[in-house]
Structures are given as structure tokens and as C-alpha cells.
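hiii so um. not sure if this is the right channel but i have a protein structure encoded as C-alpha cells and i wanna go backwards to a sequence. like what aa goes where. can anyone help
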């Protein structure tokens, strides 16, 4: 019979397509890089566009919080945040940051241990790509969210050239991911409510053009380009 520790490890691997314990110590380095910081800036822009103006006292559940990078963003925006991740080392890294108004817990998004309608808003940023059953995770997120309410999803875009290149690297976490296109993500969400989608993250490949990325991003979004690196989606329940 497997020990409790072995069972936890097995359950963790079943819950995620990639073992993020392997990259917990280096995960945040991407955001510290010049290119990573720009992607982060553009992704937060499109996510912010979906957030309500008044959030004081509102509770937000973040499924797949990783090292707490987005948890800090949601906390600074004004939410009381509960962050969950299946990776113990990711949660440990998040806890070490001492982010105010955030509690972190090791948990599997396929089976959330919260009462129905516990949170005002539930978010999953670059999470659905890495779970084995996105529909099951989505149903759990919806169950835990008050109605009327909001589900906020951010995913890596399958149509993006940069994401296709990431998936070609066998050693990369992205190689294990199941990416969505904008239309695939909309089809997943639309049975549950009204869906709004924005595609962003248009960062030029040439390093010298990175400072101009916000202009490229604005123009691409204005013309409805669907091949940016990041898909931001709001589901209104």
C-alpha cells in the first residue's frame, strides 16, 4: 500500500500535465527579464480591463496561483485573495513573499474544498492549459463563485507563433500544455454565461523593438488580430 506521501505525489501528478515543483525556484526569473516584463505588462493591461472598478471587501479565488505573481497583482488591486496550487514548492515560494491580503494553500482545482458561492470572482491565469480536465476545473470555479459573478481566465494562445515555438522545446513546461485558441476557449466557456475575449501580448521578436510593444499591442488589438501570445477572457455568470 502506498504511503500518504506517495499518494499525495501521485495525486499531484494526476492533477497537472507538468510537475511545477521542477521550476518553482526559477519561475519568477522570466518576469525579471526585459521581454518577460513586457509580456507581463501587456497581460495585466488586458486583465485589468475586465476587472470591476470597485472591489473593496470582495473575495477572489485564484486557481493555479504558482509563486503568487498574479496573487500580488490582485491583492494590490484591492481583492482579498485565496491562492491555490497543486505544487507544494510553488506554494512555498509564494508564502515567502509575504504578500498582504493573500492566503495560499496547496489544492487541486479539479475538486475545490469550498462551499458553493464562496467568492465574488474566481480567476485562473495560465492554468487551464496545464490541467488534465479543464471543464471539470471550470465547473468547480463556477460552483465556488457567487451569482451574479465573474470568472476570469487568462491562457496562452495556441495561434501565437511564440507559444508554438515554446511547445517545440521538449524540456519546456509548455511542451506538456494543451493550449487553446480564442474560439476554442470561447466554446469551452459559453455554455455557462456571457463571454468576452481579448487577445493581447503582441511583443515583437526583435529585442530592440520591445519598448514599442505597447504600440504594436494596441494596434493589433484594435484590428482584432487573434495571434497574440495571451488570451484574456471574462465569463459573466
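sure thing!! here u go:
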Amino acid at each position: 500500500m502506498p504511503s500518504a506521501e506517495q499518494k499525495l505525489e501521485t495525486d499531484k501528478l494526476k492533477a497537472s500535465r507538468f510537475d511545477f515543483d521542477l521550476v518553482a525556484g526559477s519561475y519568477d526569473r522570466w518576469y525579471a527579464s526585459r521581454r518577460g516584463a513586457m509580456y507581463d505588462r501587456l497581460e495585466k493591461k488586458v486583465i485589468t480591463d475586465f476587472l470591476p472598478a470597485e472591489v473593496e471587501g470582495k473575495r477572489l479565488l485564484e486557481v493555479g496561483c504558482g509563486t503568487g505573481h498574479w496573487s500580488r497583482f490582485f491583492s494590490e488591486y484591492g481583492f482579498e485573495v485565496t491562492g491555490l496550487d497543486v505544487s507544494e514548492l510553488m506554494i512555498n515560494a509564494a508564502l515567502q513573499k509575504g504578500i498582504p491580503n493573500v492566503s495560499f494553500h496547496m489544492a487541486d482545482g479539479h475538486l475545490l474544498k469550498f462551499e458553493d458561492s464562496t467568492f465574488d470572482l474566481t480567476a485562473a491565469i495560465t492554468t487551464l492549459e496545464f490541467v488534465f480536465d479543464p471543464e471539470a476545473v471550470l465547473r468547480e470555479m463556477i460552483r465556488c463563485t457567487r451569482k451574479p459573478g465573474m470568472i476570469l481566465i487568462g491562457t496562452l494562445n495556441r495561434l501565437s507563433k511564440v507559444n508554438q515555438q515554446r511547445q517545440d522545446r521538449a524540456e519546456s513546461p509548455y511542451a506538456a500544455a494543451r493550449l487553446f485558441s480564442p474560439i476554442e476557449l470561447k466554446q469551452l466557456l459559453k455554455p455557462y454565461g456571457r463571454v468576452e475575449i481579448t487577445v493581447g501580448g503582441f511583443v515583437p521578436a526583435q529585442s530592440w523593438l520591445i519598448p514599442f510593444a505597447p504600440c504594436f499591442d494596441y494596434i493589433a488589438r484594435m484590428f482584432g488580430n487573434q495571434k497574440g501570445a495571451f488570451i484574456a477572457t471574462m465569463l459573466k455568470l
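oh and Residues 34-48 form the longest helix (15 residues).
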